[in-house]
Design goal:
By secondary structure, the chain is α+β, with helices and mostly antiparallel strands. The chain has helices at residues 2-33, 81-106, 110-143, 148-177, 181-206; strands at residues 38-51, 56-61, 68-69, 74-79, 209-211, 216-221, 228-229, 234-251, 263-268, 273-284, 304-311, 323-327.
Length: 328
């Protein structure tokens, strides 16, 4: 009787163990055996950073995080007193260069022209006297009453006065014509150089007022009012909400022949609906990215590819960071 009871207990234990194994197998089959592949991605948008070419102190922030801005809206105003000082210097240099150019174009003053004319007339008068004196001395020399020495001295004086008259005439012509063409061109070049410096400073001054270059939403504002920002330092980031896409990391055995231009359906948990998307970018993520090793069973390594796709139709309310699910 006792042996029969032990036998029954053994049978019960065996059947119990078998039942547990079957139950675990059934649970495993339904829980893991027919699990569908899920690829999860997220929505991303283009962003651009607002920054200034000149250092300055934040004087005013016209927007805050979450504001929607349009092209031309004022975003921030900077105080840059150094740039204002440079503008004063540049404008002064431009004025000086313009004055020199005007002086070169106008030539000598009327008083200088008249003075040069008088010197020329004086030299002409001296030349006439020297010419007449030389003529008289030459006649006397021909008559034999004047020495050759005196004749040579009169001739030398005549030639000297002739050269002096020519020099006075040249000075008068120069005063009348004004500066040389090369000098006038050089003066104009100085003006253009000074004007370029003024334009450069004005471009820096425009940088003290930052305006939106593209329509979008302010996603981040970095400095506070009163803080200093360096040249090129970001002031804020603008999300271009009109340029959205989904990014997915897909193992190559899950690509299923997907290529650029294909369309697929992604589920959006935020809206509880499917979204049609079109692939525009596929690229491997390199050896450093997530990959699956299969060499242990004699097969190969599976690389992961980054797939980007844009919604075929506009989806109102779609925001960066929202999940997108692809069910295989």
């Amino acid at each position: 009787m006792e042996k029969k009871s032990q036998h029954n207990n053994i049978l019960l234990a065996t059947f119990g163990f078998a039942a547990v194994v079957v139950l675990v197998g059934v649970i495993g089959f339904f829980a893991f055996g027919d699990k569908e592949d899920v690829i999860q991605g997220e929505v991303e948008v283009s962003e651009y950073r607002v920054s200034s070419k000149v250092p300055g102190r934040i004087l005013e922030l016209r927007v805050q995080e979450g504001d929607y801005v349009k092209v031309g809206d004022t975003l921030a105003i900077l105080d840059a007193p150094d740039v204002e000082a440079k503008k004063v210097q540049a404008v002064g240099a431009e004025d000086a260069a313009s004055a020199l150019s005007t002086m070169a174009d106008n030539g000598a003053r009327r008083e200088q022209v008249r003075g040069a004319f008088q010197v020329w007339q004086q030299a002409k008068a001296g030349l006439e006297i020297a010419e007449k004196s030389y003529g008289r001395v030459q006649r006397l020399f021909d008559e034999g009453v004047m020495s050759a020495q005196k004749r040579d001295e009169a001739y030398a004086n005549y030639k000297a006065m002739e050269a002096q008259a020519k020099a006075a005439k040249s000075q008068y012509d120069m005063a009348l014509a004004g500066a040389r063409r090369e000098e006038r061109e050089a003066a104009k070049a100085q003006v253009r150089r000074a004007q370029g410096a003024v334009q450069e400073v004005n471009s820096y001054i425009r940088e003290t007022v930052q305006v939106a270059q593209m329509e979008g939403e302010v996603s981040d504002v970095y400095p506070k009012v009163g803080e200093l920002v360096g040249s090129g330092s970001p002031i804020m980031s603008i999300s271009v909400m009109s340029d959205q896409w989904g990014t997915f990391n897909v193992r190559e055995d899950q690509l299923g022949g997907m290529k650029v231009g294909d369309t697929f359906t992604a589920y959006s948990p935020a809206f509880d609906k499917d979204i049609r998307m079109k692939v525009y970018y596929i690229k491997d993520e390199g050896s450093y990215a997530v990959w699956k090793a299969t060499k242990s069973n004699g097969q190969y390594d599976l690389k992961t590819f980054e797939v980007k796709a844009r919604p075929v139709d506009k989806v109102d309310g779609l925001r960066p960071g929202m999940s997108l699910i692809i069910k295989k």
